[in-house]
């Protein structure tokens, strides 16, 4: 029997025809076609809009908010903020910064927690206004003859260590080289309705708002008081050296002048001269 004939192409399995109704173009082709249509005839009405929209401008939003808020109302609001929040509000916009940096607004925020009526003077830096704690205030005590650190601490109901730390004193004897002491505030009611003066105390090495219980001296009266106080202090030092060395006023004044007014250096210089004189006498 002859073998079956080899199947011809017409008798093979029919090829699958593509289904054109289910064909989708690639994504990049669709994007190119939409871009071309938009460039030719504008945006397609059937294409969805961007749900995010344009990014908001913070500066424009702040300017719009400032335009709706009157200047006097803004000042009244910022004056009631604590100093730290007032510093933060200065970062909102230029208009808020101008109001928050105003001297009257800074002073009002600084005085409000303690009921201070007024603060006179300008600090060295604007950072002074940001911390309105009791540590920024101090009482001024004029040192008088016979004053001691424990006695002053008892008078104002504060600790001796607080006075020494506040005035940068290593020992109680430092009171004799000071014209005044800064007393830390222990009772905030002392500041109610008071007037304080921003001063840099070079002995204490700190800038504080000083309250004068007996009134602040000013002008020529202050200069005269400082001169008299300096003379009294020099006289006390001279008397102390004279008694310690058992010498007369002239000798004590000489050794103080040699040691540039330092009592300890004057005593050391005198002891060295005395020792040298004793060695010479012994020889």
TrEMBL record:
<dbReference type="InterPro" id="IPR036047">
    <property type="entry name" value="F-box-like_dom_sf"/>
</dbReference>
<dbReference type="Pfam" id="PF01476">
    <property type="entry name" value="LysM"/>
</dbReference>
<dbReference type="InterPro" id="IPR036779">
    <property type="entry name" value="LysM_dom_sf"/>
</dbReference>
<dbReference type="InterPro" id="IPR018392">
    <property type="entry name" value="LysM"/>
</dbReference>
<dbReference type="InterPro" id="IPR001810">
    <property type="entry name" value="F-box_dom"/>
</dbReference>
<dbReference type="Pfam" id="PF12937">
    <property type="entry name" value="F-box-like"/>
</dbReference>
<feature type="domain" description="LysM">
    <location>
        <begin position="139"/>
        <end position="183"/>
    </location>
</feature>
<dbReference type="InterPro" id="IPR045030">
    <property type="entry name" value="LYSM1-4"/>
</dbReference>
<feature type="domain" description="F-box">
    <location>
        <begin position="63"/>
        <end position="109"/>
    </location>
</feature>
<feature type="region of interest" description="Disordered">
    <location>
        <begin position="1"/>
        <end position="60"/>
    </location>
</feature>
<feature type="compositionally biased region" description="Low complexity">
    <location>
        <begin position="30"/>
        <end position="50"/>
    </location>
</feature>
<protein>
    <recommendedName>
        <fullName>F-box protein</fullName>
    </recommendedName>
</protein>
């Amino acid at each position: 029997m002859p073998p079956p004939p080899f199947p011809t192409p017409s008798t093979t399995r029919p090829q699958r025809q593509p289904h054109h109704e289910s064909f989708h173009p690639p994504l990049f082709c669709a994007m190119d076609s939409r871009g071309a249509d938009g460039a030719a005839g504008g945006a397609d009405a059937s294409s969805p809009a961007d749900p995010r929209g344009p990014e908001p401008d913070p500066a424009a939003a702040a300017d719009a908010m400032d335009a709706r808020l009157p200047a006097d109302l803004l000042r009244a609001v910022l004056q009631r903020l604590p100093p730290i929040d007032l510093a933060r509000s200065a970062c909102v916009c230029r208009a808020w910064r101008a109001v928050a940096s105003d001297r009257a607004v800074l002073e009002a925020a600084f005085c409000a927690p303690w009921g201070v009526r007024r603060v006179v003077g300008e600090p060295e830096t604007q950072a002074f206004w940001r911390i309105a704690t009791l540590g920024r205030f101090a009482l001024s005590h004029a040192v008088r003859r016979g004053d001691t650190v424990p006695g002053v601490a008892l008078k104002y109901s504060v600790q001796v260590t607080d006075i020494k730390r506040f005035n940068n004193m290593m020992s109680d004897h430092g009171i004799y080289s000071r014209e005044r002491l800064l007393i830390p505030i222990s009772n905030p009611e002392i500041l109610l309705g008071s007037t304080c003066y921003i001063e840099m105390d070079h002995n204490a090495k700190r800038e504080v708002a000083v309250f004068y219980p007996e009134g602040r001296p000013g002008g020529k009266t202050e200069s005269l008081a400082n001169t008299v106080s300096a003379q009294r202090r020099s006289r006390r030092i001279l008397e102390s050296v004279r008694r310690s060395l058992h010498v007369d006023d002239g000798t004590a004044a000489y050794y103080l002048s040699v040691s540039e007014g330092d009592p300890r250096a004057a005593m050391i210089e005198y002891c060295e001269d005395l020792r040298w004189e004793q060695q010479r006498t012994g020889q």
